[in-house]
Amino acid sequence: MRYLLPLSIFVLAAASGEASAATIGKCKFNTATFAFAGTPTEQASCLLRKVKILGNVDAAPAEIPANLAGFIGKPVAVSKAKVQQAITAAGLTEAGVGGSLNDPLSRGNTNNPTAPQARYFVIHDTSTPNFGNAQFPADIDTSNQVNRFDGYRSATNAKAHIFLNRRGETYVGHKLDVPWRATKLEGNIGTLSRGMFIHIENIQPRRKHPSQPDGNAPTPGFSTAQYDRLALLYLVASTRSGTGLVPAFHAAMDEGLSDGHDDPQNFSLADFDAAFGRVLASVR
Ligand SMILES: [Zn+2]
Q1: Which of 62, 170, 187, 190 is deepest in the core (most CB within 10 A)?
Q2: pLDDT per position as a tens digit, 209-240
Q3: How far does the centroid of ligand 1 lie from the alpha carbon of residue 180, in Å?
Q4: Cα 10 to averaged position of ligand 1 atoms, centre (Å)
Q5: What is the pLDDT of residues 89-133, one digit of tens each?
Q6: Please, are residues 215 and 40 in contact by the beta-carbon 8 Å criterion?
Q7: Distance, CA 187 to ligand 1 centroid (Å)?
């Protein structure tokens, strides 16, 4: 999960605006606007750059596939009743996807009413359980050994908003109106970032790699049920916001910061986009 890079924090004075404004991180989060640089789609292209083994993030911007490209940063034109039906059809409840569809998302600056609502949907993998030198189990997508939530549960201190296993089941660590930070970048930005990011942890086991104790991830990295539920969670969060959120990979956010992470590994943007297309078709 962790890899070490030389300390290098991208803090640049903003070209204009208030003296206190700064841009932080590879994708240039601006502390005055609570947003990364560029249009929402351009932000996604930076934040969804492919995360390769050992946390090496592609230099090239990601190409945003069609379903996501037509949705990111745009008003959500889907009825809450339809989204509710999709939640039920997935065998879930509103509680199981982070709270009522009528509740807004968290706001920046620790739910300050003058700060914007969350704009970013951060995709993680848990990088656990770690099988060391052993092989992954053949029933990786269904086994309790891999898919149990026990180790992630906490009444107050869960590491993400929602944990999603390979069977498509969820554990809600924090409702989506709870401002919560889970990346190095947010720590570097400071408390004004707390609430701007929704965090989803996908269960993905790891194995030992010669250069990193948990550096080897399964291929494919995630199950179809996981992509389908992740797409539903993305729609749910965006519906609560009213605007299509900007998806982001943890490692792409943290690139260049010391003690950054390597997740998510082996994430297929094409598979996620296809799953999102299926979810959209079911609510239109
Ligand atoms: Zn992460």
Answers
A1: 170
A2: 999 999 999 999 999 999 999 999 999 999 99
A3: 13
A4: 20
A5: 999 999 999 999 999 999 999 999 999 999 999 999 999 999 999
A6: no
A7: 13
